[in-house]
Amino acid sequence: MCDRKTALMMLMLAREDLTILEEMMKSARIRDRGFGFHAQQAVEKALKAWLAFVGVDYPKTHDLEELFALLIERGQSVPEAFQRLEYLTDYAVHLRYSVSEELEDKIDRVALIRDVAAVVEHVERLIGQ
């Protein structure tokens, strides 16, 4: 059953992370680790909003691939462009607390904000926001 209240709350949180990304664009001091983390969080929360809206009790996970799979299993049409954001899972908690420089300074921030915004806006349209 649709959980609109949870969907709206998660969507609001996704929008907040997207706003943080937009504000981060103003500072050269922000490294990709932090930028990627908030991009991952925005997508994760948007997907959880979508899942709640279609009546799926989503798991406590940061794994975007798993969340996309749940949507597809539920018969949702998930654009391939959205699924390409699965790589952001690497920026979730395990990289946030790592000293690895492996993924630093490789993000096209303008393109990533556009792609993350597309996910958030898609879910907003689905929910009727």
List the keywords:
Four Helix Bundle (Hemerythrin (Met), subunit A), 62% helix, 129 residues, mainly alpha
Protein described:
Helix 2 (32-53) runs parallel beside helix 3 (64-73). It is globular, with a radius of gyration of 14 Å. It has one domain (4-127): Four Helix Bundle (Hemerythrin (Met), subunit A) (Up-down Bundle). It has helices at 4-24, 32-53, 64-73, 80-83, 93-96, 109-127. The mean pLDDT is 90. It is mostly helical. The two termini are 19 Å apart.
TL;DR?
The chain is 62% helix and 0% strand.
Secondary-structure blueprint of this entry?
Layout: H1 4-24, H2 32-53, H3 64-73, H4 80-83, H5 93-96, H6 109-127
Largest sheet: none
- Determine the number of helices (DSSP H or I, runs of at least 4 residues): 6
Helical coverage, percent range: 55-70%
User: CATH homologous superfamily?
Assistant: Nucleotidyltransferases  domain 2
Q: What do we call the CATH topology? A: Four Helix Bundle (Hemerythrin (Met), subunit A)
Total number of strands? 0
Q: Please compute the radius of gyration using only Cα atoms.
A: 14 Å
Low-confidence residue ranges = none
CATH-scheme architecture: Up-down Bundle
CATH class division = Mainly Alpha
Mean pLDDT: 90
Order of helices and strands: HHHHHH
Principal-axis shape: globular
Number of domains: 1
For the termini, the CA-CA separation is 19 Å
